[in-house]
User: Fold these one by one.
Assistant:
Number 1:
Amino acid sequence: MKKVICFLFIFVFFSGKAQTASDLLGKVVAKLNTVKDYSATASITADIPMIKILPSKATVYFKQKDKFKVVSKGIVILPKQGFTDVNSFISNPKNYQSLIGDTSVVNSTRTVLATIIPNGDGNEIILAKLWIDYNRFVVMKSQITTKTNGTVTTTYTYGDKVSFGLPSKMVFEIDVKKFKMPKSVAADINNREPKAKKDTRKKGTITVTLSDYSINQGLNDSLFKK
């Protein structure tokens, strides 16, 4: 009996790796493509060295394939990489080459690593690593290196919208020196008193909790015009 259980465990453990990276990415994209558009409430907190930003709320809007808008009364620091850029990029396999990697556990979920290398040098994304839950076909963790924002690592938590591939929580880890801040935030940094205690951390985090999703409501393109 123990041998049978052991065999089944080994089979399940390696079944994710039996698939190619393109297979896995195709299934992730297929799930994301069930969402034609959505809106959601985002609660945002930031812990970034030398910057004091109060928690804020915003409404985020998305429409296939790459329309994205954030509406808020306050200052919002929100990396696009975790919301739309990667999803849009992987939706076209002609944009990149992909390789399957090792399995690992992310947030108590067994994942397999897919490494994505863009074709040519005309892309904003230089390198992407996605840790994919190969049972539910959602991304549990991403590490995206771009030309302008350095490397952003994101971990994802899913709730009742997992069937659409939409997370309930995202935690971004950013490279403070390379990440582009809103102009108002950059001005605040420059106006800091030199005597203030210096925070030497090189990384910062942005936590986004998403709720009140409205999915496939037929958002009008005019909503995304400035």
Number 2:
Amino acid sequence: MFMSQIFNKSGGYRRLHSFNLATIVHLGTMSFCKRFIDWKDDPLGKTLGQMIGASRSGKQNIIEGSERAKTSAETEIKLTDVAKASLAELLGDLEDYLAGRGEIPWSIRAEAHQAISAIKLEPFVYTEDVLHDYWVYLHREKRKFDP
């Protein structure tokens, strides 16, 4: 029996909308933190480090879970759950950021919320130059969030 018949396929995470969105969230979080969180107001780096770490963890755990799918569906599920929890942690930090400035999150009926919620990512198609083509694709998809 060939290995491919014993194990499930793994990898392919670049096809997952969750991974692509998590990558866009991570890039956006780094930009947000550089722009809005002054290191003088965060001398221990806790908020900055936690936010960037949570966004990175969301992205990286999707990669690891996808790669481990070949040998353990249970591990894949656990790592996907860790990714989800990390992104929820980031959401909590963003809510705290708003609350600390006397702001509140948008209503789900707000035009800006609806515009962001309506953004759809195109699927990534694997090519022979996957690394280069993926980042061309991702930067194109990320621009949808610029407005």
Number 3:
Amino acid sequence: MFKRIPSHIGVIPDGNRRWAEREGMEKKDGYQKGLPPGFRLFELLVQHGVKEATFYGFTRDNNKRAVEQRQAFTQACIDAVQLLKNRDANLLVIGNDKSSAFPDALKPYANKRVMFKEGGININFLVNYDWEWDLNTAFETGSKIASAQIPRVDLLIRWGGRRRLSGFLPVQSVYADFYIVNEYWPDFQDKHFLDALSWYQDCDVTLGG
């Protein structure tokens, strides 16, 4: 169906709180509603032969939100990993696990790749991620950035209509093509992903050359 499939797709699943407010719920209630779309997208990624995908979980800045929201998005991240354990995937959770905001339940997967079942697609999950922490790791250690295991992003898809990077893997996203979906993440449809792939077919990938 598609001649060009991006090797690595970045996913910013935004709009959970706005979706909850629109539906008459509390803001915190939107995060759990984002789990089914995530696994439907997972199925589509595998179906279309995408080798790697990075999902934005939550950032250090997100911890500025109300306590009940922090608890809700943290639990959603934990639940997502628990569900992923039943799929064929290689998980890498990237984030500052030395911070109290990093969930204890995800520390066994922190900053190292773990294979679930038969493996297959690489799934990266940014949890308590901070771009400054990522880059400063290289200066502090005299080695590599914290997310060095993650390759360059080919296509970055953001739901929720916002047109900003929000600190998502700034090094790997330097040449990413950026596709915006106006619908909120809990309103995910297969069409959103397929439209992004269709749009990507005409992108002129020169990497500056």
